[in-house]
Write a structure and sequence with these properties.
4-stranded mixed β-sheet; two-stranded antiparallel ribbon; alpha+beta; elongated; 8 helices
Length: 293
């Protein structure tokens, strides 16, 4: 089961006293890195939130926002009559006793200290954790569902690219016997041309030895076998449940090494073309697995 490191989840609750909202986003990252924005005074719950995140996520850069807003009630506000009267008297004196302008009282109400917010102090934030925890869990579960959905699509594309690699590898394997035969024919033609033009002679065993040296130098059977083994391992890791991202990175690195060796040893145009196609598929695979948890 593949999980993408990119996803989004959110959850909200509202009761008669407050509104609680949780948003969590994740992008790719080599390790798990969590950053939070939490309404005060609930930042004291950061360790509990991190525990929930680490229980579900293995890798990625995660941003979690927890916002708690208390609902406003009429009884939360009081007019400070002393401050209001003080402002009024001073402004009227400044105006010289003239009639106050139409927006006089609205201006007074906006002055500092005229309206007091009489909101009760919050209890210990930890007492609210049983209410907040299921909301955080719901947002994280939604994040996981989005990561799983994207991971499923990534898995299909990765398997398709692996099949492309296998197809080109099959073409390389089928081409290997022809490479030696083609070299033998070319060498025979050259030798025959030299013999005809210059009247030289050459022993058959010398020709056989040259062909044997070429065959040994360009032998890629071992690299083909190892690359097939890496492809089998790649498929097995894709189906594993234990955060396969790093394992896939290692397997693809080994696949690239074998492909480079095949390209350097095989002295054949057709094989070189297949090697280029395999390298292109491996590069696409590398880009995809950068976002696999």
């Amino acid at each position: 089961m593949l999980l993408s490191m990119t996803g989004f989840g959110e959850a909200r609750r509202q009761d008669e006293a407050r509104t609680i909202s949780v948003e969590v986003r994740s992008v790719n990252g080599r390790h798990l890195k969590l950053s939070t924005r939490i309404s005060e005074p609930f930042s004291a719950l950061e360790a509990d939130i991190e525990r929930l995140v680490r229980h579900r996520l293995k890798r990625g850069t995660v941003q979690l926002n927890l916002r708690v807003e208390s609902l406003r009630r009429p009884e939360d506000y009081r007019l400070n009559l002393a401050a209001l009267e003080g402002y009024r008297a001073q402004l009227l004196a400044f105006l010289g006793g003239e009639q106050s302008p139409p927006d006089f009282f609205s201006a007074l109400l906006s002055l500092p200290g005229v309206v007091d917010s009489a909101r009760p102090a919050l209890d210990d934030p930890r007492e609210h954790w049983p209410t907040l925890e299921p909301i955080v869990v719901e947002a994280l579960d939604q994040l996981q569902r989005s990561r799983l959905e994207e991971g499923r699509s990534m898995g299909q594309e990765l398997r398709s690219l692996a099949l492309d690699v296998t197809g080109h590898l099959d073409r390389i394997a089928s081409r290997v016997p022809e490479v030696v035969s083609a070299y033998r024919d070319r060498l025979t033609e050259r030798v025959a041309s030299l013999i005809q033009d210059r009247g030289l002679t050459i022993e058959p065993e010398h020709l056989i030895r040259e062909v044997a040296i070429f065959a040994e130098r360009s032998d890629i059977a071992e690299e083909i076998t190892r690359l097939r083994a890496h492809l089998d391992q790649f498929d097995a890791v894709l189906s594993s449940d234990d955060a396969p991202g790093r394992k896939l990175e290692f397997v693809v690195q080994e696949m690239g090494r074998e492909t480079n060796t095949i390209g350097s040893k095989a002295n054949d145009v057709e094989i070189s073309r297949s090697v280029v196609e395999i390298k292109g598929a491996l590069e696409k695979i590398r880009e995809l697995i950068q976002n696999v948890e």
